[in-house]
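Q: What does the assembly look like in three dimensions?
Context provided by user:
Components: two
Sequences:
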Amino acid sequence: MSTSQATTTEHPALAHQFDSMEQQQDASTFGMWVFLLTEIMMFGGLFTAYLIYRIKYYPAFVAGSTSISVSWGFANTLVLIGSSFTMAMAVWAAQKGKRNAQVWFLIGTMVLGAVFLGVKAKEYYDKFDECHIPGHVIGKGFNSWGGCSATDKSLGNIAEEIRHGNPSTPEVSAEQTAKQTEIFFSFYFAMTGLHAFHMLIGMGLLSWLTLRAKRGDFGPAYYTPVELGGLYWHFVDIVWIFLFPLLYLISRHQHGV
Amino acid sequence: MKPVMPERHYLNDNYGIRSWLFTKDHKRIAILYLFSVTFFFLIGGVFASLIRLHLLTPNGELFEADTYNKLFTMHGVNMVFFFLIPSVPAVLGNFLMPIMVGTKDLAFPKINLLSWYLYMAGGTFSMAAMVSGGVDSGWTFYAPLSSGYLKTHVIMLAVGVIIAGFSSIFTGLNFIVTVHRMRAPGMTWGRLPLFVWSNYAASLIMILGTPVIAITLILLALERGFHIGIFDPKLGGDPVLFQHMFWFYSHPAVYIMILPGMGVISEIVPCFSRKRIFGYSFVAFSSIAIAVFGFVVWAHHMFVAGISVYSALVFSLLSYAVAIPSAVKVFNWTATMYKGSIEMSTPMLYAMAFIGLFTIGGLTGLFLAALGLDVHIHDTYFVIAHFHYVMVGGMVTAYLGGLHFWWPKMTGKMYPEPPAKLAALITFIGFNLTFFPQFILGYMGMPRRYWAYPPEFQVLNVLSSAGASILAVGFILPLLYFAWSLKYGEVAGDNPWHATGLEWETSSPPPTHNFHHMPIVTKEPYAYGEGEEVPVVH
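A: Here is the predicted structure of the complete assembly.
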C-alpha cells in the first residue's frame, strides 16, 4: 500500500508479501491481537465453566478456595507483574537498539517466569501432600472429606458452616460435598495448568528472542518479534490477574483451614 | 486466437517434493489441501457407503451394533472436521483470497504452511484412532458416554480434532489479517468480492469459536484420563454443560462450513447471468449477520436436554432470526438471475442446485427450531436429512461448483464440459434420492444412529441407499475428468468465463507472486455491463 519501498533500501527482514516495514509490523501486530482474541475465547470457556460450578456448588467452592495459599499466590502475582515490567523494558531496549539491555531484560523476564513456575510447583506439591489432587489416577487419592486422613474433615466442615450461614443453599450429603470440592480442584488444576503451559511456551519464545537479540537482529527499524513476544507475555500475565482473585480471593472463608 | 499456457507459473516455478512440502506459496498450499481434503472426503464417503449398505435391511445383518456406531462416528468426524470445515476456505480460499484482494500472498505464509501440517497431524491422529479399533462416541463426543463409559480411543480422536482445530484457527487468522491489512490500492471494503466477505465472516467464527471446542475437548480428555469430575454426574459434574460448550462452537461451525460456500455461489451467479449482483451490500453484510447470529443459537440443539423452557424460547426465536440473512442471500441470487442472460455451464448448474437445495435445507431447519415440532423430530432422520441438505446439497455442491469455476485458473486447463454437466446432473439426482426419503423416515419416527429398524421403514431406506450409490458416481466422475484435463484439457486462457475480479486479470495459472504488475483497483466488483457482448463458452 505504501511506496516507501521505492525510496528506502529494503530491510533484510522484510518478507516478500509486504510492501514496507510499516505494513509488515502493522500486519504482524494485528495478527497477534487476533490470536490473543482466540486465546481469550479458550480461557473464556474454562472461566465460564468454573463460574457456573462456583454458583452451583458455592459452599464446596469456598471451602476449596480457602485451602489454597493466598500468600504464595500473592507473591506469584508480584513476580508476574515484575516480569511484565522487564518484558516491557526489553521491548523498549529493542526499539532503542540497546543490544545488551535487551538481552538482560529478556533473561530477567525468563528468570521471573521460572520463579513463578517454581512457586506453582511448590503449591502443587502442597496439594499433593494434603490429598487434594482430584481423581484417583495421580496422588494419594482424594479423601471423601477433602483431607488426607479419615479424621481430617477440614474442607467438609467449612462447606457445612457456609451452608448453615446461607439457608438458601440446598442440602446435600457429605459425599456430594466432597465431590463438589473435588470439582473445585479439577478446575484449579485445569486453569492454573493451562496457564502454566502458556508460561512454558512463553519461556520458549523468550529464549529464541534472547538468541536473536544477542545476534543483534533487532533495532529501531525492526523489533516486531520482540513486540509480539511482549504482547503474548503480557496476555499470559493478565490471565493470571484474573485467575488469582477467581481461585484464591473471592469469598474466601475468614477463619482459614 | 487460441490461448497458450504462460511460460512460467506457480506450478512449474520449482520442481521436486521439497518445493511442495516446504512451500510458502498460498497457491501451492491450496493444492496440498486439495489433495488431502479429497482424501478425507473419500474416506468419509466410504464410511457413508457402508452405513447405507448396512441400512438396506431392517435387522442389522451386515455389521455388529458396535461396528455400526464406529462407522457413523468416523463418517461424521471425517466429514465435519476434515472435509467440510477446511474444504472451501483452505482450498479455494487459500488459493483465491490473496489474489482477490490483490496481494502477493497471505499475511503469514509460514503460518499458512503450519496450518496444513497441523491439519495433517490432526488427520493422522484421527486415522490412528480409526485403525486401532475406531471410536463409537458419535462425532458429538457427548459426555459422560465419551468420558466415562466407552472403551475406545476417544482421547486420541479428540486430540486429532483439537490439532485440526488449530489449523482452522490459523487459516482464519491469516484471512482476517490479509483482508484488513493487505488489500491492493483502490480495493476498498465495498469493492471486495463477496467470496472474500463470506470467507472473512467464516474466519471470524474460526478464531472465536474453535478455541472453545479445543478447551471443551481438553476438559473431556482430562475427565476421561484422570477421572476428575467435570461433566460426568457420577463425579459431581454436569453433562448439559458439555452440550452447551460443545454446541457453542459446533453450531457456529456449520456456518464456517456454509458461509464460504455461499461466497462461491455469489461469484458464480453474476458471472453466468451476465449481471451485477443484486444488492451487493446486503449480500456482504448478511454474511456478517449470519456469523453474529450463529453464535447465539447453540442451545437449539438441546431443546430436549432439560434446559429451561424460557431459555428454549429465546433460543428458538434467535434461531428463526438466522433465516433472515440466509433468505436475503437466496433472494438476491434469484434477483440477480432474473432477466439475466443465463449460461448453463457446469458451475452454474451447481450454483442453481445449491440455491434450491439450500432453501430446502434452511427451511427444514425452521421446523427443527420450532419448540413443539422439535420434540417430535429431534434425533430422527429428519435432522439427518436437514443437515445433509445444507451440508451436501449446500456446501459440497458449492465446493464442486467453485472447483469447476476456478479449475481453469488453478491449472490453466479446461475440464471437459459434457461429462461435467452429466456429473452435476447425476449428483443432483443421487443426492435428492438419498436424502429426501430421510425427511419422511424421520417424520415417521425413525431415530438417527439406530442399527436396526422396523420393517415398514425398509422401502424408504432402500431408496436412500440406492440414491447413495448414484451420488457416489456423481462424486467420482469429477475426479476422473479433472485428472484427465490436466493432460488433455484445452488451454483455458486467462479469463475463460469473461468474469470480473482480479483473479481473472492475471494469467492462468498465476505466476508465483500472483500478478505480473501489482493491480490498482478502479471499479466495483461484478461490473457485468448491460449491452455487453454475450460471450460464448464452449
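Follow-up: Residues 1-7 of chain A have pLDDT under 50 and may be disordered.
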